[in-house]
Amino acid sequence: MGAEAAVSFDSKDAVAPDRTDDAAIVSAAAGGDRIAFERLYRRHVGRVHGLCLRLTGHRETAEDCVQETFVQAWRGLGRFEGRSAFTTWLHRIAVNAVLARRRGPQSLETGLDPAAVDAERAAVDALPPLDLEAAILALPDGARHVLVLVGIYGFSHAEAAESLGVAIGTSKAQLHRARRLLAARLELPLEAP
Fold first, then answer.
1. At what angle are helices 86-103 and 59-76 packed, to 10 degrees?
2. What is the C-alpha to C-alpha distance for residues 151 and 173, in angstroms, rounded to an integer?
3. Buried/exposed code over 22-31 (b: 16+ C-beta within 10 A; e: otherwise)
């Protein structure tokens, strides 16, 4: 799979990962087996797409990040050492794709005007949330990123901190902030620490 090969997300492609180990499939894919890589893609695309969508808040941007994730995974599969689960490695690539898009020149290439994005976010913030997803999307970026990684995807604070390039204490503080903001936005009582 070269850089020119596009990996597109289609909901029919999302196959829930089963409990079997990915090791044999990863090994075959690392050896250049495209069918094995396609199996990995189908097995993990749904969760990667969900992660990217929750981190970006925009469907098109999330789809671009999913594509970039799987292109980078294909290119880097030979360097995967198996010290962590394949899903953890893949999710780190996805987080990096989202963060790179957010701070790199790619964000200018998408045609998104930063002022328009800020105005859209302010408009969304002014609306009462309709559901939990809307409330999560209204969180500040740092708090939302940590909430998604730790609270939804089950990353440890150390893994989230490493993926986001922040200190572990910052990850913990951002999770606390996210929970506090969600409780206020959803008008829920805060749990005692």
1. 130
2. 13
3. beebbebbbe
Asked if 52 contacts 92 with a C-beta cutoff of 8 angstroms, the reply is no
List Cα–Cα distances, 150 to 6, 12, 102, 103, 173, in angstroms. Answer: 30, 27, 20, 22, 12
pLDDT value of position 2: 42
Calpha distance 146→155 (Å, rounded) = 9
The closest of 38, 59, 41 to 50, measured between CA atoms, is: 59
pTM exceeds 0.70 = no
Calpha distance 55→156 (Å, rounded)? 17
Residue with tokens 């050896």: 31
CA pair distance 149, 146, nearest whole angstrom: 5
Ordered domains of the chain (ranges, CATH) = 11-112 (1.10.1740.10), 114-187 (1.10.10.10)
- SS3 per residue for 175-188: HHHHHHHHHHHCCC
**Which has more pLDDT, 35 or 84?**
35
What percentage of the chain has pLDDT greater than the value 90? 37
75-119: pLDDT as tens digits:
999 888 888 889 889 998 999 999 888 776 544 344 445 565 566
What pLDDT score does 39 carry? Answer: 93
